[in-house]
Amino acid sequence: IGEQALLKCSFKSSSPITESLMVYWTYRPLAGGQMETVFHYQSVPHPTTVGKFKDRISWVGNVASGDASIAIQSPEMSDNGTFFCNVKNPPDV
């Protein structure tokens, strides 16, 4: 609570890292319900502009080294849930 929360995600790919690489972070509340996209990356970071994580997600990854991590500013108990990291590096998925 109140401190930055780091959500780590690492990946390996058999294909070279290119501008086609995409990272998607989604979130499902602890109580279940609708999945929500909180962040995506393709060449540049795109934090969500709507929803509960608006203006609170920052990119801390480095795709060149297989890191797709993000950070959440000022986490609250209501942020509790499951976060999913999905990396696609065509043609490797």
Automatic annotation (TrEMBL):
It comes from the Eukaryota. It holds the Pfam family V-set. This is MPZL3 protein. GO terms for cellular component: plasma membrane. It comes from Cephalopterus ornatus (Amazonian umbrellabird). It is found in: Membrane. The keyword Membrane applies. Residues 1-93 form the Ig-like domain. Keywords: Disulfide bond, Glycoprotein, Immunoglobulin domain, Membrane, Signal, Transmembrane, Transmembrane helix. It is a single-pass type I membrane protein.
